[in-house]
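#onboarding

Welcome to the new folks! Below is a worked example of what a typical request in this channel looks like: someone posts a single protein sequence, and someone else replies with the predicted structure as tokens. Don't worry about understanding the tokens yet, we'll cover that in week two.

Example request:
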Amino acid sequence: MNSRMPDVVTVPSAASGRPKVVASRTRGWAGPIGIVVLLFVGVGCFATLPWTLGSVEFAGVVERRYEAGDLDLNLLPPSLAGFDVAERDRLDEVIEAGGFVPVLTFGTDQLGRGVLARVMLGGAVSLGIGLASALIAVTIGTFLGGIAGFVGGRVDATIMRFVDILYGLPYILLVVLISVAADGVIARLGLDPSSAARQFVNVATLLVAIGGVGWLTTARVIRGQVLSLRSQPFMEACRAQGMGAGRQFFRHLLPNLVGPIVVYGTLAVPAAILSESFLSFLGIGVEEPLPSWGNLASTGLSELNTVRSRWWLLAWPCIFIAITLVSLNLIGDRLKARFDPTHGSP
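Example response:
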């Protein structure tokens, strides 16, 4: 039995009364452009991890590249913008002394660290947290929404009331409470803020905070889809054959939920990345010395002043956040048009 829903629907034409096929809107350049840009950013951030996390040695000290810097080269503008006489003299002095010179394509920060290496590593951190959080949210939402719609009755009512309660609570408040609880655990364990264990706890807290409260909309959407599919003829045929509930759900119902799951999963990724960036911007989540696009933007904001603005510290992470979110939304819209036949064009 082929239980998959068709990709197109047939509706009567108002003019002629004959059927007319309404195809999904899968044409246009927005989706492919979004895919290309996202691949360029994602591959660039993750492929450069061996370089950004690699060790460099200077003045007898070995440091990670994203942490390495020279205070004599602090707050240099991007090399493409050019240096003035004083900045060129500082650079020449460090080179003559045999000091460490980071890649200056994106400029340097307050500690003389290369912004390029930190933005690339920050992108890998932000994208990794966003993808993992979205996967957690979609998995929880699909499971609970599917169970609520398939079982119904008191189970459905209980799950949906729980969703309503969480909807009524402020999202930021829940995240802050989870972060405060994690900070209390970290303080009791006596972990150093720069230690790998502390950074692992911070990242895990973000995953729980974002993924643990980001599944509510997905659960409602999946529940509605399951309730609609339960009344379809192929599900009635499954019940008439005496097929077990597990086989009905996993063999015939779940394959027809792939479209909504893919669409909302794609749309959940930019929301998770934006949440991570916003929380890191507020100081909740990824902390120094580990960079993310959010805490890089937070640091760059303090360098915007009326005396001398170090614009590059804020511009680069914000540019990468913007193009990544736009690309993901373009891909999500393309997938929505592909999997939702009701959005077709005549």
